[in-house]
Amino acid sequence: MSQKVLLSSKEINIILHRLACQLLENHLTFENTVLIGIQPRGKFLAERLTKILKEEYKVKHIDLGFLDITFYRDDFRRGDKTLEATKTHIDFLVEDKNVVLIDDVLYTGRSINAALTALQSFGRPKDVELLCLIDRRFSRHLPIQPNYRGRQVDAINDEKVKVMWEENDGEDIIYLVNR
Amino acid sequence: MSELSVKHLLGIKYLKETDIQLIFETADHFKEVINRSIKKVPSLRDITIANIFFENSTRTKLSFELAEKRLSADVLNFSASQSSVTKGETLIDTVNNILSMKVDMVVMRHPNPGAGIFLSKHVKASIINAGDGAHEHPTQALLDSYSIREKLGDVAGKNVVIVGDILHSRVALSNIFALKLQGANVKVCGPKTLLPKYIDSLGVGVETNLRKALEWCDVANMLRIQNERLDISYFPTTREYTQQFGVNKKLLDSLDKEIVIMHPGPINRGVEITSDVADSKQSIILNQVENGVAIRMAVIYLLASKIK
User: Fold this and answer.
1) pLDDT one-digit tens code per residue, A136-148
2) What is the average per-residue pLDDT within B136-152?
3) How far is B3 from chain A (nearest CA, A)?
4) Which of A70, A81, A122 is closest, CB to CB, to B3?
5) Binding positions for carbamoyl phosphate (chain B) (predicted)?
6) How far apart are CA B67 and CA B294, in angstroms?
7) Residue in B3, B33, B307 closest to A71 by CB
8) How many domains in chain B?
9) Which secondary structure element, helix H or strand E, spans residue A163, and what is its range?
10) What is the CATH number of the domain that holds B31?
């Protein structure tokens, strides 16, 4: 197994600021907008963006939630392992809101598909956008594309994109791992 | 640990402590799901579950059915009283006929102890025991422990007394196994005639004085007097039982601490507990019922993920 660095801490920081600015451009006050991080790994990205928006761009209030998609996945009983759930925490209504779904890596699009189904349990949003840090090109199984993307990469199927966060893994870094 | 060590849920006796923790953590997520405005998830849309009840039940049957529907499984209901069982069909034949209609999982209640275990050796489907005679009622014990964990933070180290007819109770036996596995201290309390002779071999204390038992415990699980199972007279009259082993508000208020009152239902109001106790804020009887659905969703979800 070999791995190479895709993005360093400095590059990630620049990208996060750009994504925050793009969100700001479209949503400005975030009055009618909610951010939802997809569990387990999209949570860190969503928290980071919220922090930047609040601290550096002085957005007063942002509704931030976390959505677990385990029970909505289409591969239940198809793998060897039992799918393990994580916590869903959405303490606001998404009815008539602009929802931004946030995940770290967009690969086949199946997680996003499950997230869209899961989101219906919380109401009917006005519209739904997708933000991802890494967009793996040419690997989609479904017609799903991001509205905001950090970096596009061409990775073959044997490779895996590993996103590490300082608060969870000790440092901000993204690797391309050869399995 | 992300999967159960068993393929069937036949009794708490066959579970490991880690299995119980996994079921509780999964139930936490389902409890959040059933408190949403849309209480349904699509996980089990390709699974069919048969609920086979050879004995009457309201709560358990409804709770299982609701859990199955909230997971999007297809559900078949079968009551022995309206079936060919009365024409003399054997248990294996009945179940195999149901299974040939492509059923993946069977939830069964049966009056004979060990019926679930017997069935699991002869049929292919995954079996959940919803009560087998005076033997086990695993999902009830799981939801009882889950409710204690929710109310008191943890089960380990807590003192739990089970009061009433221990001899005929599957709830008592499953609860003893579950509580001991999680490190709680357990005592049983009731008339001597309703305590099994070798109950102390399970590592539980025996107390025949209700007041002493209540002073010792953090949680009192009050069992129902099961008149339908009492083939001979185990105590002189119901009134005398209530005087010695019934909990009323006066007794509860005279204790120097606030204990938690549980009851697996259905309650004989005025026999095991009085109405004011059942409806007091110390009682978590209705929380037990709510948690029952989440626990059963967790058990079904975890077992279904092992069906290939």
Assistant:
1) 998 899 999 999 9
2) 97
3) 6
4) A81
5) 59-60, 109, 137, 140, 265-266
6) 7
7) B33
8) 2
9) strand A159-164
10) 3.40.50.1370
Average pLDDT of the segment spanning B48-64: 92
- Known binding residues of B are 59-60, 87, 109, 137, 140, 170, 224, 265-266
Structural domain including B66 reads 12-136+289-304
User: Is residue B7 a part of any domain in this protein?
Assistant: no
pLDDT digits (tens, 9 = 90+) for B287-298: 999 999 999 999
Judging contacts by C-beta atoms under 8 Å, the chain A residues touching residue B28 are 87
Taking only the tens place, the pLDDT of each residue in B105-133 is: 999 999 999 999 999 998 889 999 999 99
Task: Give the strand order in the sheet containing A2-7.
Answer: A2-7, A173-178, A159-164
Taking CA–CA distances from B40, the nearest residue in chain A reads A121
- Domain for residue B144, yes or no? yes
Residue among B305, B306, B308 with most chain A CBs within 10 A, to mutate: B305
- Note whether B305 contacts A82, CB cutoff 8 Å: yes
CATH number of the domain at A151, please: 3.40.50.2020
B211 and B86 in a single domain? The answer is no
Please report, for residues A122, B92, B162, B191, B248, the alpha-carbon distance to residue B223 in angstroms, rounded to integers and kept in the order given: 39, 32, 7, 13, 14
Chain B: closest CA distance from residue A6 (Å): 31
Picking from A68, A81, A122, the nearest residue to B29 by CB comes out as: A68
Is A116 in the B-facing interface, judged by CB distances under 8 Å?
A: no
Do B29 and A87 count as a contact with CB atoms less than 8 A apart? yes
Over 80: is that where the pLDDT of B231 sits? Answer: no
**Residue B50: Cβ-neighbour burial (10 angstroms; 0-12, 13-18, 19+):** buried
CA A66 to chain B, closest CA, distance in angstroms equals: 13
Low-confidence ranges of chain A (pLDDT < 70): none
Nearest to B26 among A85, A120, A121 (CB): A85
Same domain assignment for residues B49 and B100 = yes
**What integer best gives the mean pLDDT of chain B?**
93
Contacts of B42 in chain A (CB under 8 A): 71-72, 117
- What is the DSSP track for A99-152? EEEEEEEESSSHHHHHHHHHHGGG---SEEEEEEEEEETT--SSS---SEEEEE
Distance CA B6, CA B126 (A): 10
User: Are B90 and B180 in a shared domain?
Assistant: no
A70–B contact, CB cutoff 8 A: yes
Dump pLDDT digits (tens) for B197-215. Answer: 999 999 999 999 999 999 9
Can you give the pLDDT at residue B84? 67
Torsion of CA A157, A163, A168, A170, to 10 degrees: 120
